[in-house]
Amino acid sequence: MLDIGCGLGGLDEVLAGEFGARVTGVDVARLIVEMGQARIAKSRFRDRIEIRLTEPGPLPFADASFDVVFGKDAWLHIPDKAGFFAEVFRVLKPGGIVACGDWMKSPGPYSRDMEYFFKMEGLTYHFVTLAEYGQRLHGAGFEDVTLEDITDQSQVIAREELARMKGALYPVLTDALGPDSRDFFIEDWRSLTVVLDKGELRPARMRARKPR
Question: What pTM was estimated for this model as a whole?
């Protein structure tokens, strides 16, 4: 499996441990990759997982290298979705699967609440609608495309997380982050619940297959 945007490799351990996969994780953030490599070096699945630093752009792998390409809340940072899925298609073996969880947007321009959420996050997002996501997959040559909007579930989870941050986790956040960063983090999460509840931010799952 190839995990694009693997971060610290936590999900790679799940993929290796629960599914017996051999996982190559890639990310573009050097510090995160170094932290992930140190973390995986202590994992009981270290012989099944490799984390690499890569650059934005073409994937550094030969054609038909992987059975599965996976991603979790990372591909929303990629501006060229069509080019990206063409690369995913290229590195998958015939019959291979691409699967991910990612963040989408509702149709139309961003509201002030969404712009505020972007400001709080301090990151660059390149959202498309779920329908556009499906179009990019079909355009890259994938078949058996399934798309699932999970906004309702995400709304509940985010509100529960915010309540925990204001409650049981409040002293933990204070000790770990200090008062200023704690308050910023809680406000960031509050802004997340707003755009989720309005349906502007729309988490989703997708799966598709490369033809044999």
Answer: 0.93
